[in-house]
TrEMBL record:
Keyword line: Iron, Iron-sulfur, Metal-binding, S-adenosyl-L-methionine
Record-linked CDD domains: Radical_SAM
Protein name listed in UniProt: Putative DNA modification/repair radical SAM protein
Top-level taxon of the source organism: Bacteria
Sample GO molecular function, one term: catalytic activity
Keyword Calcium: no
Length: 523
């Protein structure tokens, strides 16, 4: 199929095309960075706040937004699930670095945004695209003195030197895993390899550890391999580690001259030839000139890295997906794994036909399970198994686990330890902390628990206060299941909406008509 490219496109038209094309990249996340203006004489622009940079709605209803755009929607790859794939007949546009910088600054000055989310298709080659993104970040930071939040996508297959340099300008970086297993990647994204995706992930992890003054190659304890073979966990680690020989001592291209030493037999290594390329960075010249260190050391990817998996395009079970996510958290020190419900936008025999729209409820269950992995001390093998590979769509994973382990309940809230409390449905992290703190000075009652925010309509089947349950309850699976199903679960507000997967548009809402008029004044 032909590619439609419109020449002499206005910046506003490019913004319409490339902001719409960016909606499939998930970025609903806090920045994780607190940084005040550091420009000389307060001459810089913008601050970055850990609690406020995301493209979502806050608890009080405010829309907190990034300028979320692609550098280009042109792409040499032909991923079957992607709207911007090479074979699709779509309008193509490409920003220049100067245009992105101008838009970011003008939007920020008008208080429309609080930061930048920059992703891209692959224009000409991964290296060429990553160089353009690096030039954009450098221009924002050094020429415009922009000190706000920047989230930048790393392009799989790009030169490690370019990924390294982008990490000194961005607050957060992400490399999309795309699909849960290497087999699915080969089937639907034949131009991408698991090695090219995991390699920059490992590089970013190493850079962050070195920047924090920690040894980069201390062996992270391996999870037991049992139960992960079918999920591709072993392949995930092998593809990330590459050659395991002794590659010596290498210098990375930053003013601090970070020394990275790789020990023989270490599994947490980059591929040797890539490290050799990094070592030669001091003499590397790109199409934009010599690789140079940033003028200000903001830290290397201080807000950490994340990734995204498409859910529902391939036949992996929930157990496989959360097992891979657990491996990523443990082996690559990721801040977040995002799950993106597959949206049927291309016709292809390799893709599933979704008659009822994107699997948003499944995506929601995976996010709930991901939260249990990260904050509640659960493991993937506790939540699911090969014999029970998928979550119950009628009940959240924590309730489902509790019903399957009734032999551990009820627990006494005045005696149970913190991690046991976390496993009770209706008790969250904050409420468990409140219980542990309050019972040092008092014996807690059900009324006290209600004041602390415990959801008693869920918890009453699993706890006692002073040896007594709130009501006479049969500790029996069918009874508790039926009672919990009567408790209407609070789903995301747009779960049933037809446009649940759409991002906020700058152009299609009448409420923004006056804003668009102002936008036109500077583009």
């Amino acid at each position: 199929m032909s590619i439609v490219i419109q020449e002499n496109m206005t910046v506003q038209k490019k913004l319409e095309v490339l902001s719409d094309a960016a909606k499939y990249d998930v970025a609903c996340t806090s920045s994780g960075v607190d940084r005040t203006n550091s420009g000389t004489g307060n001459s810089g622009i913008g601050n970055s706040l850990a609690c406020g940079i995301c493209h979502t709605f806050s608890a009080d209803g405010r829309c907190i937004s990034l300028l979320k755009i692609l550098l280009t929607n042109e792409c040499i790859f032909d991923c079957k699930y992607c709207m911007n794939r090479a074979s699709n007949d779509v309008l193509r546009a490409t920003f220049t670095p100067e245009e992105i910088c101008g838009l970011t600054i003008e939007f920020y000055r008008r208080n429309y945004i609080e930061g930048l989310f920059l992703s891209s298709g692959v224009l000409k080659s991964p290296d060429f695209t990553m160089e353009l993104m690096l030039r954009t970040l450098r221009m924002l930071r050094e020429e415009y003195q922009f000190n706000g939040y920047i989230h930048c996508k790393a392009v799989p297959g790009a030169d490690p030197v370019l990924v390294e340099m982008a990490g000194w300008y961005a607050d957060r970086m992400s490399v999309n895993l795309e699909l849960p297993t290497a087999d699915s990647l080969r089937q639907l994204a034949p131009n991408k390899t698991r090695k090219n995706i995991l390699r920059p992930m490992k590089q970013i992890q190493i850079g962050r550890m070195e920047n924090r003054g920690k040894p980069a190659f201390n062996r992270i304890p391996l999870m037991e391999e049992d139960g992960y073979r079918e999920q591709g966990f072993t392949k995930l680690e092998q593809e990330a580690s590459g050659d395991r020989g002794n590659t010596g001592s290498l210098i990375l291209p930053h003013e601090t001259a970070r020394n990275v030493r790789i020990g023989q037999g270490t599994a947490n290594t980059l591929i040797a030839e890539d490290l050799q390329e990094i070592a030669e960075a001091s003499s590397r010249k790109t199409s934009f000139g010599m690789i140079k260190a940033p003028s200000i050391n903001r830290g290397f990817v201080p807000a950490g890295q994340s990734t995204q998996m498409i859910i529902g395009a391939t036949p992996e079970s929930d157990y496989q997906i959360i097992s891979v996510a657990e491996a990523l958290y443990q082996k690559f020190d990721l801040k977040r794994v995002f799950y993106s419900a597959y949206i049927s936008i291309n016709e292809d025999s390799s893709l599933p036909a979704l008659n009822q729209g994107p699997p948003l409820l499944r995506e929601h269950r995976l996010y709930q399970a991901d939260w249990l992995l990260r904050f509640y001390g659960f493991r993937a093998t506790e939540l699911l198994s090969e014999n029970r590979p998928n979550f119950n769509i009628l009940m959240d994973p924590k309730c489902n686990w509790a019903i399957g382990h009734l032999e551990q309940f009820p627990i006494e809230v005045n005696k149970a330890d913190y991690y046991t409390l976390l496993r009770v449905p209706g008790i969250g992290v904050k409420s468990a902390q409140r219980i542990v703190k309050a019972r040092k000075t008092a014996i807690l009652s059900f009324e006290d628990l209600k004041k602390m925010g415990i959801v008693l309509k869920r918890a009453i089947y699993f706890i006692t206060c002073n040896g007594r349950m709130m009501y006479p309850v049969k500790i029996e699976e069918n009874y508790i299941t039926s009672m919990l199903l009567r408790v209407k679960e609070k789903l995301p507000f747009d779960m049933e909406a037809a446009s649940a997967y759409k991002q906020l548009s700058l152009f299609d809402d009448v409420k923004f008509a006056s804003a668009n008029a102002q936008i036109g004044s500077f583009i």
